[in-house]
Amino acid sequence: MPARHQIFEQLRQELVAIPVVDTHDHIRPRDTFERPFTVSALLRNTYVNRCLRVADGSANGIPLRRDSIVVEDSWKATKEIVERVKLTSFYRWLLRGLVDLYDLPSAELDEIAWKRLSVELARRYTDPDWQRTVLDRARIQTVIWDPFWKAGTWSVPEVRFRPSLRISSSLAAFHPDASDYEGCNLIRDWSQTFNVTVDSLTDLEDLIERVLAENLRAGCRSLKSPIAYERTLAVGPTSRATASGIFGTSPASISADRRLAFGDYVIHFCLERAREHGLIVQVHTGLARLSDSNPLLLARLLEEYPDVTFDVFHGGYPWVHEVGALAQNYPNVRLNLVWLPQLSTEAAIQALKEWFQVVPQLDRICWGADSWTVEEMYGGLQAAKFVLARALADLVDEEYMSLDDAVTAAQSVLYRGGAKIYGVERERVPDTR
Ligand SMILES: [Zn+2]
């Protein structure tokens, strides 16, 4: 029996060239980033920025003040930021990705590496093929793409992208002046495109259908629910008459209860569309408004929609055991490791080991990078591969499973699981053994 580190190395080798389905990513089109694209611009568009938030009383991890602390493009300013974040998993994996993609001369960001990165970032972000090159290098076959800056966007920057329709802007559409937490509103964003006026709940339902139809034509396979950032995950029963009565209330005068009730109705409406079109419902759980984002709050919906598949995101962190319990109890639940390896490598390893033991059947756990830039996506994939090799090496070493089964399990998380869940299998996974 080889030692644990040998098994780990063997598994890592197996995963080097594996094709990948990235089931959740934001990858912003290159031309939406500032120019020239600097080191500080990169950091502002990564989770490093999240680590630098100030206590402004916001409950959901999203700063009330959107201006970033990362502003100055100098080595001195960058060094100060690095000193603050250098132990976080977010930073470690971003840096690994950068070292690899930009051939940085050292494993840590020092002045020489910073200079090289500054020159190369600016240069590569003028190259229209740069993002595609990184996706190819990562062997990403499909990206389930979430353009959060304008929910409903269906024109994709890359053929391998499939839009996921974000439902939050529809929840805010009880009035055209209302906004979701990202500033979106389905009526404001899309009624002109279709040349329609939205004066009633019926009009709104019609608009949702139209936006969905365009998304479906563009290869959409899922709805995305980020609601935990602004309301509870628990969805109550509601009636169309109630929602119809709430429609048109101005955002200044609507009560929290009525806003919630309207949202409940729209969520049910969207879940019925998911059932009708066989769409996967992607749900952000865990880190958001912590008082209301425990994944167990989904139980009622999972029972109400047994024929809809729910992909539960982020391991529900910190509720990683709870999502395991959901997947064990409800066959319509899938678990998504998305973001967790970058958030805490160690938490992801422990969670995965537990999930392999708890979740019945293969191909029910998948992965995504949840990044705005290809650089962070690339580092995030390295994190996922590391996490898989560590978790599975433990299980092989403990004689819980064979090495062959470990390889199959890793391939499932990075490719087959995502391909099967989202129905996007394009090529057979080459047998790397
Ligand atoms: Zn995301």
TrEMBL record:
Any one GO MF annotation of this record: hydrolase activity
Residue span, Amidohydrolase-related domain: 270-371
Name recorded for this polypeptide: Amidohydrolase-related domain-containing protein
